[in-house]
Write a structure and sequence with these properties.
By secondary structure, the chain is an alpha/beta fold. It contains 8 helices and 13 strands. The radius of gyration is 18 Å and the shape is globular. It starts with a helix and ends with a strand. It binds ribulose-5-phosphate.
């Protein structure tokens, strides 16, 4: 497919997502990172009627997109403690049938997770290449943000978890060394076998806890997150937003933890249509 097909797909998905989920009177909106989000900002700019609207970026690139569009950025940590974002939009590197996502292709996963969890609703926008049944089908690796000093121990631990060749991500100009995130941390890209969804574990396709070489999405995310030196994992899984709030309210055993899954993902397709996946 040509570049123009992919760009047209991103724009179509962004326009539909904004039409469905952006309230023109919104006050605080989260803006993710990457190339697709540019089309979301373009559509929001056309739709917004609130001159006081503020946009919370997920990193340097995201902030530049907001500023270039003539909109007003506000730092995540200047939001009042009890203020939620009306909505947050972001791209994704891959999305599975349960709406679990891989993110971090642009190395912004930590702030993207903060913003996704702070939103009343988190909506993803992507082109058809990202739409898969299982994670690690087309996208090859899990991005992981780590403290620079911890790189050797995290690489070793990832191999123990079953990642064959985890690698430190370099800048495009290899001789400039490792890529630094907005937190001045490094990114490790870790390949694993294609991940299972919960239903696969229930139907016996694999244990999903790594013991038989298979990993279920959230179990792998938790295992990586528990490694010393890891700031954040580029797996967005688990209930988020009002669904999670409603469940937590009735969950006396407190087993419903806070996740980061989007409530909806809009895929721009190669034929110009837009496909929607929503939380079941
Ligand atoms: O997670 C991200 C950055 O960390 C991006 O949202 C993801 O890489 C998708 O980017 P694009 O819209 O350019 O395909």
């Amino acid at each position: 497919m040509s570049d123009t097909t992919v760009e047209a797909a991103k724009r179509a998905a962004a326009q539909q997502a904004v039409k469905d989920h952006f309230d023109p009177n919104a006050t605080n909106v989260g803006i993710g990172s990457g190339t697709t989000i540019v089309y979301v900002v373009e559509a929001i700019k056309q739709a917004s009627t609130n001159p006081a609207i503020r946009f919370v970026p997920t990193g340097y690139q995201s902030r530049q997109v907001i500023v270039k569009a003539g909109l007003t950025p506000i730092a995540f940590d200047s939001l009042a403690e009890d203020t939620l974002l009306d909505v947050a939009f972001d791209g994704a590197d891959e999305v599975d049938i349960d709406l679990n996502c891989i993110k971090g292709g642009g190395a912004c996963l930590f702030q993207e997770k903060l913003v996704a969890q702070r939103a009343r609703k988190f909506v993803c926008v992507a082109d058809y290449r990202k739409k898969q049944d299982r994670l690690l089908t087309n996208w090859p690796t899990i991005p992981i943000e780590v403290a620079p000093i911890s790189v050797p121990v995290v690489l070793r631990a990832l191999k123990t978890l079953g990642s064959t060749e985890p690698k430190l991500r370099n800048t495009l100009l290899e001789k400039s060394g490792p890529l630094k995130t907005d937190q001045d941390f490094f990114i490790i890209d870790a390949p694993f076998k294609t991940l299972l969804v919960k239903e696969d574990v229930e139907s016996g396709k694999g244990k999903g806890d790594g013991s038989d070489g298979t990993w279920e999405v959230t179990q792998l995310s938790d295992a990586i997150k528990s490694l010393t030196g890891v700031l954040e994992v580029g797996i967005f899984s688990g209930l988020n937003g009002p669904d999670a709030e409603a469940l937590r309210a009735t969950d006396s055993r407190k087993t419903v933890t806070s996740g980061q899954k989007p409530i909806a993902v809009y895929f721009g397709m190669a034929d110009g249509s837009v496909e929607l996946r929503t939380a079941q």
